[in-house]
Write a structure and sequence with these properties.
Helices cover about 65% and strands about 0% of the residues. By secondary structure, it is mainly alpha-helical.
Length: about 120
């Protein structure tokens, strides 16, 4: 479950970061943005990104700008996700403090069942 949360957070932050970086970017025109499916953003290598962008009408300057935006967005999303997971781990320390310590559990004697005494009267 933790990896699913981390993955969803990573993809969500990556997508939001790319979208906000592209909104007012003067180097990448609206026509080029329309050629790329921004609804299906995923982690890919730089080579794969450039391979996808080569099938568009992007100029070399626009390719470089898109690669820069993607690299920054990828780094930002990884940092945010790691910070969120660290924060979650720190918050989890408090409820975990109420759990019994394993060594203490072993040191306690096991409860014995008392058999009722039978009297011979």
């Amino acid at each position: 479950m933790g990896t699913a949360i981390a993955g969803a957070l990573l993809i969500g932050v990556l997508s939001a970061s790319i979208t906000t970086s592209l909104v007012d970017n003067p180097v990448i025109p609206q026509e080029l943005k329309a050629q790329v499916n921004l609804d299906d953003v995923d982690f890919v290598s730089d080579d794969r990104l450039l391979e996808v962008l080569e099938h568009t009408t992007a100029a070399p300057r626009q390719l470089a700008e898109a690669a820069r935006i993607y690299t920054q967005a990828r780094q930002r999303s990884l940092r945010i996700c790691l910070l969120a997971l660290v924060g979650l781990a720190l918050v989890a320390i408090f409820p975990a403090g109420a759990l019994p310590v394993y060594g203490e559990m072993r040191a306690r004697p096991l409860p014995t069942s008392r058999e009722p005494e039978i009297s011979n009267e």
